[in-house]
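Request from the bench team (R.T.):
"We need a structural guess for the complex before ordering more zinc ion. Sequence and SMILES attached. Just send the tokens back."

Command: build protein-zinc ion structure.
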Amino acid sequence: MLCKLQICKCFKLNCKFSLSGVTVYPQNNNGISNYSRGVLNDDIGNSNYIITSTTRTPAKQVDVMYNNISKYGVNAQKELYGTYGDQVIDMYPNKPLMLSKVNSVGPSRVSKHCGNPRIINVIDISPNSIRNRPAFERRVRADSRVSRFYTPPADPAYHLEIPQPQ
Ligand SMILES: [Zn+2]
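Reply to R.T.: structure attached below.
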């Protein structure tokens, strides 16, 4: 189910998603598997939170990188991304060139957000939407189901990578 706001509130099992650019996998609950939802519920507890991004198309990935470079600068983004992402950042501010670079190096090498959500579910959560940030960060770091966790200021969002049971 989609709602009209750009960012929508999420309450436990009743998740709604951004209209702008999130790839919708109906068979996968709009980008978040039941397994991942269970992980989030355990780590966040019984409170509201906002999911700002899940799976991205290559074009959406370029939009995100472009906006973050404009806001935070090239160096901050290069710290966040790896070799392949850096090659995309080098094409800034030319969006068409950024997109062709994403496609030529392989979208999932640039960002796990562009990968297959049935293998790794990648979820960004708005830090401002988490009531007790230190407790949340502690729980995620101790949660072996989360393979990678980026936090502000390195990443503007809480970025969680959750490998899916195969
Ligand atoms: Zn992310």
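Two things stood out. The chain has two domains: 23-55+115-163, 58-111. The helical segments are 34-44, 58-72, 74-80, 83-89, 95-105, 107-110, 133-141.
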